[in-house]
Design goal:
With 824 residues, the chain is mostly beta strands. The chain has 2 domains: 37-133, Immunoglobulin-like, CATH 2.60.40.10; 250-822, Maltoporin, Chain A. Helices cover 7% and strands 63% of the residues. It is built from 5 helices and 46 strands. The strands form 5 sheets. The chain has a 22-stranded antiparallel β-barrel. A 6-stranded mixed sheet has the order 10-11-16-17-14-15. Strands 3-2-5-6-9 form a 5-stranded mixed sheet. β40 (727-729) and β41 form a beta hairpin. The radius of gyration is 29 Å and the shape is globular. The chain starts with a helix and ends in a 12-residue tail after the last helix.
């Protein structure tokens, strides 16, 4: 069945690419000589909506108001201006007896060569001029010199979802059942929010991202080969999640309500306010999600015939309640000085009830042990972060000094009750335990960046950053004593672990441009000082190391339609708190877990060759990459006693990954856009330092396609399909998985309100199945949530003031124009 689906997926992707390329080439050949754009629209009477003919249309250069082109409307009120060179223009509409209209900031580019304006309404009997600002719809994908930007605002497939759902729909990124995020097949990825750290080292980043509602996210930026300006952590790259900010002058806002099957609800309120100097924005989101989980495993061990086979079946329910609030202000002190303050707060509660049935058989498949292991767990937690930014611009606007300070705190308090009930043999006595797990993480960042331009095309960037982290993890277990009929502390199942880490880094980067050739050279140094203290046993360890991280990139434009680039970087993966904590957790009697304080950091050299081809309506971006890692950090599982495994971490000798990726974005027709990607990579793992003959290699591929059709005044519809082939992991493989989603949306009240319907995992295929192989055992386990769900959403936008007001204010206050480029 999977093979058939794979063949169908390959066929669909091939057809899609052929259609996209064919359509793009046809359009490209038609406009190859000029590479020009087109503007169309219709002029109507504001009072009765009747078309207005013979209205004069002038296309103006915004710099000097010179006329670039012109036409007049036909009897049906429509007009069209073609063969317009790419750029930004104003459009003036003039008709005797009616008000004039000036439509501003109409942009034409390779990504958007045709603009179809909303109906322009003229008011009779007036002589005033009304200004309208065109807000062009962003392309789904934007290629920038150092990153790929995927604009996800308004993505119907993720309505009612979280940041994790957003990442599931971004090329090169995949998310497994437990929220672990992989980038090009590697989980060693650095994830930031608005360019700032999100979550400290001890926190589960997947769980934290599930607290950010999808409708708060504007775009996702992928930095596949970061320069020396970025932290060296994360060999596979950096994922930057960009949150939304307020729009134009005045105040505005929106609220969204979502309801999903099997008790899934959330609501969001956004508010924004802005004037000449100050912008305030804030939002609040409430989320209540219930879902069912199931799983199982089959293990065969080769060292004991009395317990040769183990079968486990798990079922449970999870209930998540979440409050998420964020706020920020941007203040322009003057045209050279500005400050920004942002903050996020999340309060959450998670309840998990789970039952696992374990059955153990001897070599003749005779049952010799059967019991139920029940878990009731509740987690109360919060995370809080705040960041302050100051920007100083010198007389030369390209010369600037930026300082940042940020603080992050996350705290989770988990209480649990576990109970083991024996069925076979009946003589075995069950046991009860209570657990209390308190984890408190703190992280503070200080950063200073300076840009010194030497000419129009060359500049030097330097900076310094310090990171201070501290994690306090306290795990206590009480065991029920049937004699005293009370719970008593068990020191063998309790531990307190304190971990501290400091990272101090400095960088220098020189970049320049010679005609259409761009280059960038950089070097970063980082000193890491860390220490761990297992207070329960008095075991302490220190791990200090220094690293040099060079980076380089070059790019060359080949005419106006093509660009080729080559980049290199050296990166690091530091062991995390859970990987280092030496305490052996035996809460699950058949699956122990422990960290390894002797872990070393993993270093990776990465190189990537990229190419971009721009057609009029299509962008094609193929790339190939290679990563070579030494002392790879990897999870290992060994059989330690008959049928008990210990999961820990080790440094493997090396790992090499190479692959290719293709991303295509196209508009087949005016109403139909398609975005697709396909990737292939091969991984070779060598760990003979752990065990002789311990090598693993294999390839994996994945494909993703997103199709959106917009039928004006009817509805919008989106289909999304994702397929991931077999994925090689150091000690086994992850089986293929796939998902198909569909979403509908209808706008009304002139776009102020919308209703949407989304169905995720329509065919209920999303399941994670892992095969592990050890020297003394084989194991196959799977996990699944109720991923098939339907969500109904309603959104309403309100407020006064928009970008037209901003343009008018800027026209009246020309001295403030420079502030618009600060990125606020």
């Amino acid at each position: 069945m999977i093979n058939k689906i794979m063949k169908v997926a390959i066929l669909l992707l091939t057809i899609f690419l052929s259609l996209a390329t064919s359509k793009a080439e046809t359009t490209f050949l038609q406009g190859k000589d000029s590479l020009n754009g087109k503007i169309t629209g219709v002029i109507i009477d504001k009072d009765n909506n009747s078309p207005l003919s013979s209205a004069a249309i002038q296309l103006l250069n915004p710099k000097d108001n010179s006329v670039v082109s012109g036409t007049e409307t036909a009897t049906d009120g429509k007009f069209s201006i073609e063969n317009i060179p790419f750029g930004t223009y104003n459009l003036k509409v003039d008709l005797i007896g009616y008000s004039n209209v000036l439509v501003k900031s109409i942009s034409l580019s390779k990504d958007k060569s045709e603009v179809n304006l909303e109906p322009i309404k003229l008011k009779s009997g007036l002589v005033s001029t009304e200004e309208i600002v065109v807000e062009a719809e962003k392309s789904a994908m934007e290629l920038k010199p150092d990153k790929k930007v995927f604009n996800v605002e308004g993505n119907m497939i993720t309505q009612g979802g979280t940041a994790v759902d957003i990442l599931k729909n971004v090329p090169s990124v995949s998310v497994d059942f437990d929220g672990n995020i992989s980038f090009r097949g590697s989980q060693n990825v650095k994830i930031v929010v608005d360019g700032k750290p999100f979550g400290s080292q001890g926190a589960n980043i997947g769980n934290l991202l599930e607290q950010i509602p999808a409708n708060q996210i504007s775009s996702v930026e992928l930095v596949t080969n970061p320069s020396a300006k970025f932290e060296a952590e994360g060999p596979s790259g950096i994922i930057n999640i960009v949150l939304k900010k307020g729009g134009g002058f005045g105040y505005n806002g929106s609220f969204t309500l979502n309801a999903g099957t099997k008790d899934k609800y959330n609501g969001t309120l956004n508010m924004n306010m802005r004037n000449d100097k100050l912008r305030l924005n804030g939002s609040y989101d409430y989320r209540l999600f219930n879902f069912i989980i199931e799983g199982g495993s089959n293990r065969q061990n080769f060292i004991s015939s009395s317990s040769a086979f183990l079968n486990q079946q798990t079922s449970g329910r999870v209930r998540n309640t979440n409050h998420f609030g964020k706020g920020g202000l941007d203040y322009n002190i003057d045209e050279r000085n500005s400050i920004s303050l942002t903050g996020n707060y999340n309060d959450r509660e998670r309840q998990r009830n789970e039952t696992t049935e374990s059955s153990q058989y001897d070599g003749n498949n005779v049952l010799n042990e059967n019991y139920f292991f029940k878990t009731n767990e509740k987690t109360d937690g919060y995370n809080f972060d705040v960041a302050l930014n100051y920007l100083l611009k010198f007389k030369n606007p390209k010369q600037s000094l930026t300082s940042d300070i940020s603080y992050f705190n996350t705290n989770d308090n988990t209480t649990g009750l576990t109970e083991r009930i024996y069925v076979v043999p009946t003589s075995n006595i069950g046991e009860k335990q209570t657990q209390l797990n308190i984890e408190d993480n703190h992280e503070t960042n200080f950063q200073l960046d300076y840009i010194q331009p030497f000419s129009e095309n060359t500049k030097l960037e330097t900076g310094y950053k310090s990171i201070f982290r501290k994690t306090d993890k306290d795990f206590k277990t009480d065991v029920f004593n049937s004699i005293t009929n009370s719970y008593e502390p068990d020191p063998d199942l309790s531990n307190k672990f304190i971990y501290k880490e400091q990272i101090h880094g400095a960088y220098a980067m020189f970049s320049g441009k010679i005609k259409e050739f761009n280059y960038q050279l950089g070097l970063r140094t980082e000193q890491t000082n860390s220490n761990g203290d297992l207070a329960t046993t008095g075991q302490k360890f220190d791990n200090d190391y220094f690293g040099l991280f060079p980076s380089a990139s070059i790019s060359q434009k080949l005419g106006t339609e093509e660009e080729i680039s080559l980049s290199y970087s050296r990166r690091i993966t530091r062991p995390s708190l859970n990987q280092l904590n030496p305490f052996v957790n035996t809460s699950d009697p058949l699956n122990y877990f422990s960290g390894n304080p002797n872990l070393k950091p993993e270093y990776t050299n990465s190189i990537e060759l990229g190419f971009a081809k721009y057609f009029t309506v299509t962008t094609i971006n193929p790339s190939i990459f290679y990563r070579d890692s030494k002392d790879q950090l990897a999870r290992t599982r060994v059989l330690i006693d008959t049928n008990v495994t210990l999961t820990s971490f080790d440094n493997y000798g090396s790992s090499k990954t190479y692959g290719a990726e293709l991303i295509v974005s196209t508009t087949l027709f005016k109403f139909w856009s398609i975005n697709g990607s396909g990737s292939y990579f091969n991984t070779d793992v060598e760990a003979e330092n752990i065990q002789k003959g311990f090598v693993n290699d294999g390839y994996a591929w994945s494909g993703r396609m997103n199709s959106t059709m917009k039928f004006p005044d009817i509805l919008d519809i989106t289909f999304s399909y994702f397929y991931s082939g077999k994925l090689i992991i150091p000690q086994g493989e992850l089986a293929p998985f796939q998902s198909f989603d569909v979403a509908l949306r209808k706008d009304f009240l002139d776009g102020q309100a919308s209703v949407g319907l989304r169905v995720s995992d329509v065919f209920n295929n999303l399941k994670f199945n892992v095969l592990l192989k050890g020297e003394q055992f084989d194991e196959n386990f799977f996990r699944k949530r109720d991923t098939r769900a339907a969500f109904l959403s309603f959104t309403y936008k309100f407020g006064k003031g928009d970008k037209n007001d901003e343009r008018k204010r800027r026209r009246d206050r020309p001295d403030q124009n420079q502030n618009d480029g600060m990125g606020f």
